[in-house]
Design brief:
This protein has 116 residues and is mainly alpha-helical. It is built from 5 helices and 2 strands; from the N terminus they run αααααββ. The chain starts with a helix and ends with a strand.
């Protein structure tokens, strides 16, 4: 798995909770990893990452880990992402590009697999 995609998945697991308590539970990343992601969900994540990288390589190639992380955060409307200052020359363009992907959220299924 490439650096961008690994950072994207790590960010997704880090900001998503398992909903095991009324307060939201624990971050999925505390107890789960990429191996726990449903295969179809993983394919969707891989495809989104591949397309985003292909379309914006010249803007993100210098910092793929941050770009993958910011791709997850920006597409899902978190309080940080491409627009927050780490991408001064391309942040607005990359933020707008994320809109075409729409929001997606992870959840833990009854089978203990992670789904979008």
């Amino acid at each position: 798995m490439d650096t961008f995609t690994r950072a994207y998945i790590e960010a997704a697991l880090w900001v998503s909770n398992d909903e095991t308590t009324p307060a939201g539970g624990e971050p999925l990343g505390d107890n789960y990893s990429v191996e726990d992601i449903d295969p179809q969900t993983l394919l969707k994540m891989l495809a989104d990452c591949q397309k985003f990288q292909s379309d914006h390589w010249n803007k993100i190639a210098n910092n793929l880990p941050l770009a993958g992380h910011d791709f997850w955060l920006t597409r899902n409307g978190h309080g940080s992402g491409f627009w927050d200052g780490d991408w001064p020359e391309s942040g607005d363009i990359l933020t707008t590009a994320c809109e075409q992907y729409g929001e997606c959220f992870l959840y833990l299924g009854d089978d203990k697999k992670i789904y979008i």
